[in-house]
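Repro:
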Amino acid sequence: ARKYSLVICWGLLERDRGQFYNSCLVAFPDGRWGCQRKGVPSPEEKRDRFGMDTRSRVFRWRGVPFGILICSDAAWLSLRWQLQQRGVQLLLHPSAGRLGKARKYNRAAERMFLGGGQQLARGMRMWYAVANPIGLSGEDCYPGNSWILDADGNVRVHLPGTNRVREMRDSLGVATIRM
């Protein structure tokens, strides 16, 4: 983060006082760091007794307040409302949706999720960046489908998803954010 003057966010499994959390760490170029824990555990996380933390944190870099919703947290209205009420202008949404054993990818579902993201960006009046992994990990297939939307819901970057291994590419989406 310091070397390239970037804010870096990454997911990890966090353990705190014997409790596990699906978390996202944030490293700032000035040496600060922060952590956002997932608020809505998936069925698998509930089964494995992951903790939940329904407090939305607001981070700031160069005057821009941003928040993080991990995976299914974006569906929880109170978490989104907390961020909106605290003046967040950029919403980061790391997720890891995977395909089942059939590995069917549905373009209509991709358009539906993107359309929902556009409605969310417009409704909350904030930039919205979704990052999904792409590739294979053991038996799991991660199809991608990442985007950056402006506060009007306009697509600035879209890295479409695929279930075809030969079409999967490492990609980086970049957009200039103007507040």
